[in-house]
Automatic annotation (TrEMBL):
It comes from Pediococcus cellicola. It holds the Pfam family ABC_tran. This is ABC transporter ATP-binding protein. Residues 5-235 form the ABC transporter domain. InterPro entries: AAA+_ATPase, ABC_transporter-like_ATP-bd, ABC_transporter-like_CS, ABC_transporter_ATP-binding, P-loop_NTPase. SUPFAM superfamilies: P-loop containing nucleoside triphosphate hydrolases.
Amino acid sequence: MSEILNVINLSKKYGFFTAVKNVNFVVSSRECVALLGENGAGKTTTMKMIYSAASITDGQIKVDGIDVSKNPATTKRALGIVSQEDLLDGSLTVLENLIAHGICYDIPKKQLKEKCKELLEFVGLSNYANKEITSLSGGMRRRLVLARAMLNDPKLIILDEPTTGLDVQSRHVIWKKLLTLKQQGVALLLTSHYMDEVEKLADKVLIIHQGVVLAEGTPDNLPVQNGYKTLEDTFLGLTGFDEEANDIVQALS
């Protein structure tokens, strides 16, 4: 496996607040690395620095050996992004949404249309190519966003909570596609609040709390290494979750 993403001593500050502190990890081809943390832990901020949507305060990020800060345009072309927001154009058809996005990569028109059709087939949306976006279910929309992220043949796909709000069947469809991409050599960087999703997809997990990596390992080994039975117990224990205190906060909110 070749190294696709290298995050080195990465930090992000907003004034006096440190959102990410000295984070280090590597993602290789055919590998999925999951960032596991509560809301506000620094996961999305880390991802935004990788695809140049947020500046780096300290440290370094390399995508396919290229420094993100020095050459963001080149590194962006090696990435596919599946963000929490779909950002699909409701005035265009399913196929037109892909074509409009593909134009950004200067793909020749004829080649682009064929590529879009191939990607729609891959995500199971061929029959919806000429349908309006409003006709798609939530799961279909997420599959379309995944297809869009693949237009530039990325070496790394960044997945920020890719199946949030979807039903069980839709989640499994997306998991199957992501596992296929891994087998094809694509690297994946995932954030998710679903433990079963992390266990299904991730080869390595980083537990992040208040911008700091508390532990890392495989989904199977992390609990053993830290004296817990399950990945969920490990996450809750290491991040200091107090169920009784949380119940009080929920009751008062």
